[in-house]
Amino acid sequence: MRPSRTIDLSTGLFVLLGFAAILFLVTQITNREFSLRGESYRLQAQFENVGGLKAGAPVSMAGVTIGRVESIGYDMNLFKAVVTLRIDANYDQIPNDSDASILTAGLLGGQYVGISPGGSDESFRDGDRVEFVQDAIVLENLISKYLFSQAGSRESTDEAPATTE
Amino acid sequence: MSGLPGELIASFGRFLVRLGAMTRFAGQVFWQSPAVLLRPRLVVEQVYNTGALSLVIIMTCGLFVGMVLGLQGYELLQRFGSEEALGTGAALSLLKELGPVVTALLFAGRAGTALASELGLMRATDQLSAMEVMAVDPMRRVVVPRFLGGVISMPLLTAVFIAVALFGVQLVGVQFLGVDQGQFWSQMRGAVELGDVNEGLIKGLVFGVACSLIAVFEGYNAQPTAEGVGRATTRTVVISAVVTLVLDYILTALML
């Protein structure tokens, strides 16, 4: 049997290492830069289409994360998606005619809400609604629009000589 | 030829008997656990035996699992021109699957066999009966501290494994193959949530309970012969591996 001091020492070392590893996993590789626990206020925005936006996605202005998407619901009266945003109380000077758009980070990145400031003197208060919104871009819709416009323009060029004759 | 169905039924019966015995054994172990925790000395000794002594093999294997993950992940992601996603992919696969499962398999091989053969040898040399004669409960004195030591060690070993493996991924991906360091870490941070870390640690804990329980059960109930001890050791590894992989599927389905 080894002397128990050695056992205690190595056990202590092992436990310390284990907790250090847990701490590393919790703090270093997860996204904890912005938590919703601090002071914050809510904004609402109505979108025709939120695409792949999920609760917890960042809300950013000029690339700086200022809040999170709290929840996404569907309003049966408006037939629109209602997105609730929670903004850090430090950012309480956002003009109330700013617009919110759903953007994609990089090619494979997740979607987030980008806010670009407007020119109003008054700023958003808790519970306000963002009036100006831009929906998520859905690739299928873009492609079908492109295809239809191609087909449309070809038809018109085909018809054009016929009408001039 | 009529012997075959009979044989199958008989072996299924033996399986049921063993499962029942194990459930009863698990009940006893859980029932006694709080009382044993009041004497931490014995548990600390077992944390040393199962945890601290497994650390070297866990860290070595973690490093190489991470390195190979970096190599394979880079090779795969390069085809889509998104090498920067290496950090995300490696971190998520390590946290959710590879970390807990590989740690549990190594744990069964390193600590589980040690527990089973130790207890089996105690059984074979009548040490356990001697304790009973001296009015010392072998469950409380020998079995439960070993079980608790394993349960405490496994989540810690899992965390160490994942952290070292991430270092391995980073070593190969960033240092050798030239993935951008900032992209690597920031994409990882963007994609990994606290829930993913929890999932890994919960899996580690559940696998720890299962593997430790199997090891002490097989050792405690080993045939008191040299062959019996060997068989108990083998069964520990085989059953632990199967149970770990089955539990892994169940836990993943539950936590998705």
Task: Outline the structure in words.
The complex is a heterodimer of chains A (165) and B (256). Chain A is an alpha/beta fold and 165 residues long. Chain A folds into two domains: 1-30; 40-142, no CATH class. Chain A is 31% helix and 31% strand. In chain A, strands 7-1-4-3-2-6-5-8 form an eight-stranded mixed beta sheet, with no helix packed on it. The longest helix of chain A is centred in the C-terminal third of the chain and has 26 residues, at 139-164. The radius of gyration of chain A is 26 Å and the shape is elongated. Chain B has 256 residues and is mainly α. Helices cover 87% and strands 0% of the residues of chain B. Chain B has nine helices and no strands. Chain B has helices at 3-37, 40-50, 55-78, 86-124, 127-133, 138-176, 181-191, 194-220, 226-255. In chain B, helix 4 packs antiparallel against helix 9 and helix 8 (194-220) packs antiparallel against helix 9 (226-255). The longest helix of chain B has 39 residues, at 86-124. The radius of gyration of chain B is 21 Å and the shape is elongated. Chain A binds chain B through residues 4, 7-8, 10-11, 13-15, 17-22, 24-26, 28-33, 56, 105, 107-110, and chain B through 44-45, 47-48, 51-52, 55, 82, 85, 91, 95, 153, 155-157, 159-160, 162-164, 166, 185, 187-194, 196-197, 200-201.
